[in-house]
Amino acid sequence: MVKILITGANGQVGRSLVEQAPATVSVSGSDREKSGDGKIVQLLACSSSELDITQADRVKAVMEQFQPDLIINAAAYTAVDKAETESDQAYAVNRDGVLNLAQEAKQRQIPVLHISTDYVFDGEKDTPYKETDSTSPESVYGASKLAGEQALQQSGALYLILRTSWVFGVHGGNFVKTMLRLAGERDTLSIVADQQGAPTSAASIAETLWRFARQYFGTGNLESGVYHFSNQPETTWHGFATEIFTQAYGMGLLEKQPVVQGITTAEYPTPAKRPLNSRLDCTKIQRTLSIEIPQWQDELSRVLAKLQNES
Ligand SMILES: NC(=O)c1ccc[n+]([C@@H]2O[C@H](COP(=O)([O-])OP(=O)(O)OC[C@H]3O[C@@H](n4cnc5c(N)ncnc54)[C@H](OP(=O)(O)O)[C@@H]3O)[C@@H](O)[C@H]2O)c1
């Protein structure tokens, strides 16, 4: 039997991880199910109220009680703009919380699969970022996420850091849901058109993390390292918004399509600075897992279809 602990299980990626997992149980539960490769999997998926990763004692207690063989950390402080004035909270979760998990993992010689962000880069490069490019975050959120990466790397635990970008999905708040709401309220929208990146579905991130987990349990090996993963192809927030409206209108989710005006980052000031170039080079993960990178337009269709079914 293998035991897997998921933290941040109520977030966008956390919920997708749970949806795609073989079984879900509460802290005291004991449901079990066979995974695809015949192993029995016991999953403990904790929301922030069930396991606050900033509480070292609580992390230790859950680890002692559950004795996981692998941790997937989907918990994070993700309020990018608020982090500029809530730096302590951002670091408490994104650095110290990760360290709490990493120290327990090191002691138990188990891996941590962790998620990080394109915001560890300053966006000044004019080609997609590789894992080997130097980091230089320009926001508190980005700096706190980088500090978490470093805490995990220096802990001595086996680890995998998946840097991703522009996450969207069925659960939680995200750009897709904001655009659908605004389309119902306004005829014209001004959307930033000079930041380049790639929207990435929470479902495809979860699928990729589960691939690594299966590989680890199948081979007993995990090559610690940083991997870039985003959906393809690259676009801008303006391009993403336009596609959301085209698809949503086409399937009857919207009664009308708003006019989408492109504006510059300078015309839409935010407390936290965003990288102009958020593009991630995904060659390494493609080779390692032998996967095709999903197209975000296809992922968007699936998300919109689910939202339509739920409405
Ligand atoms: N969203 C993006 O566009 C984006 C882009 C690049 C990378 N990422 C990274 O992808 C990962 C997943 O992001 P997401 O979009 O799924 O974020 P999300 O929807 O905000 O989910 C984060 C989850 O972490 C939980 N959490 C916060 N503080 C916690 C704590 N102290 N202990 C335990 N859980 C805690 C939150 O719980 P509450 O709901 O109770 O607060 C929330 O359920 C994160 O590492 C994030 O940095 C996200």
UniProtKB/TrEMBL annotation:
Functional note: Catalyzes the reduction of dTDP-6-deoxy-L-lyxo-4-hexulose to yield dTDP-L-rhamnose.
Cofactor requirements of the protein: Mg(2+)
Lineage of source species: Bacteria, Pseudomonadati, Pseudomonadota, Gammaproteobacteria, Oceanospirillales
UniProt record similarity statement: Belongs to the dTDP-4-dehydrorhamnose reductase family.
Protein name listed in UniProt: dTDP-4-dehydrorhamnose reductase
InterPro entries per UniProt: dTDP_dehydrorham_reduct (IPR005913), NAD(P)-bd_dom_sf (IPR036291), RmlD-like-bd (IPR029903)
Organism: Oceanospirillum linum
Regions crossing the membrane: none
Pathway: Carbohydrate biosynthesis; dTDP-L-rhamnose biosynthesis
Record keywords: NADP, Oxidoreductase
EC numbers on record: 1.1.1.133
Domain spans labelled RmlD-like substrate binding: 3-308
Record's cofactor remark: Binds 1 Mg(2+) ion per monomer.
UniProt catalytic activity: dTDP-beta-L-rhamnose + NADP(+) = dTDP-4-dehydro-beta-L-rhamnose + NADPH + H(+)
Record-level Gene Ontology MF annotations: dTDP-4-dehydrorhamnose reductase activity
Enzyme class: oxidoreductase
One of the GO BP terms on file: O antigen biosynthetic process
Keyword Membrane found: no
NCBIfam families: rmlD
Domain of life: Bacteria
